[in-house]
Specification:
Length: 326
């Protein structure tokens, strides 16, 4: 037999699902989990009326904590990605949520990422169950179309433009290591791999932002979607080197473990492998000095004409363990 407390929680969740369906979300995005996420974002406890909905900045971890505390549903820490992908991402794309309104340039994968109910959406939530609710949905839908245009414009405004060596143009999402990736492509490549082909660029929003799969296949490399890719892959055609570059902002230097991972990932390559870690500055490199793998290179964007070579045997070239046999 359900207690009043349990019945109140269930009723609140059903109401949240009703709202999501009315706003045009499909069954998958109006599930119980999505409803709970909406309630957490609005900071609404089971006994609170919808008129008391609010819209503070909120990250994924506080969302999980609120749901557990007030609705008795526990989501493990490893469900963060599920909540983000199954609910928050769709809410954001639909204009229901604002992502990082306090800092638009914050990287997508930042641990400080926060979300907030969009003001017009919050206004609709606050009058749920009233006589004007049905009418407000139609008005909100018209308004949301304009909101989405504005949000898209803001996102594009903050993207990082990038020009490939062949003249093709891309844009990277704002923040994180992406400004450094831009420097790698536009400053490192012309200096140290002139005439090379950039065959892969990863992005915090889109893992395979740029991928020349046919070119890599020609070198014997076939990549799976789950592959843990370096940030940039460049084929120095003249010397037949595949240069694997990690752009480091807060993590991800080519240490011994990462070098072994990349060696395994590109083991079928008919081009020799070269490992490079890129930093914005010497200061940014300092905390990683003890981690950098031997038999690799370091490039610093603030001193673009120079490389730091980690070993004395060979400078900017593949070592025997990553050189294809004839």
């Amino acid at each position: 037999m359900k207690t009043k407390s349990t019945a109140g929680k269930a009723a609140k969740i059903r109401a949240a699902q009703d709202i999501l369906r009315a706003l045009g979300f499909a069954e998958r995005q109006s599930s119980e989990m999505s409803a709970l996420v909406l309630l957490a974002l609005a900071v609404l406890k089971p006994k609170q009326p919808w008129a008391e909905a609010t819209a503070p900045l909120c990250g994924i971890t506080p969302i999980i904590a609120f749901i557990a505390q007030h609705y008795g549903v526990g989501y493990a820490p490893n469900t963060r990605e599920t909540i983000r992908d199954e609910a928050v991402k769709f809410f954001s794309e639909a204009g229901l949520l604002l992502r990082n309104p306090d800092q638009l340039g914050r990287p997508t994968n930042s641990g400080k990422t926060v979300y907030q109910l969009e003001p017009a959406a919050l206004a609709v939530l606050k009058i749920y169950g009233s006589e004007t609710w049905s009418h407000s949905i139609g008005s909100y839908e018209k308004q949301r179309a304009k909101i989405l245009v504005e949000l898209q414009w803001q996102r594009e405004l903050n993207r990082v433009p990038l020009v490939l060596p062949n003249g093709d143009k891309l844009t990277l999402s704002a923040g994180g290591q992406n400004p450094l990736i831009k420097s790698v492509v536009e400053e490192f490549c012309p200096r140290f791999t002139p005439g090379a082909a950039v065959v892969y660029i990863g992005d915090t929003e889109t893992k395979f932002l740029h991928l020349d799969a046919a070119h890599l296949a020609g070198l014997g490399v076939a990549l799976k979607a789950s592959a843990k890719m370096p940030d940039v892959v460049v084929h120095d055609i003249r010397r037949n080197w595949l240069v694997l570059i990690e752009a480091v902002s807060s993590a991800g230097a080519v240490d011994g473990k990462r070098r072994s991972e990349l060696k395994q990932l590109f083991k079928a390559s008919t081009a020799g492998l070269v490992f490079v870690t890129a930093f914005e500055s010497r200061r940014a490199m300092q905390s990683f000095l003890g981690q950098i793998s031997w038999e690799s290179e370091v490039w610093i964007a603030e001193s673009p004409d120079h490389l730091i070579h980690f070993n004395g045997e060979r400078f900017l070239g593949p070592y025997p363990d990553v050189t294809p046999s004839s």
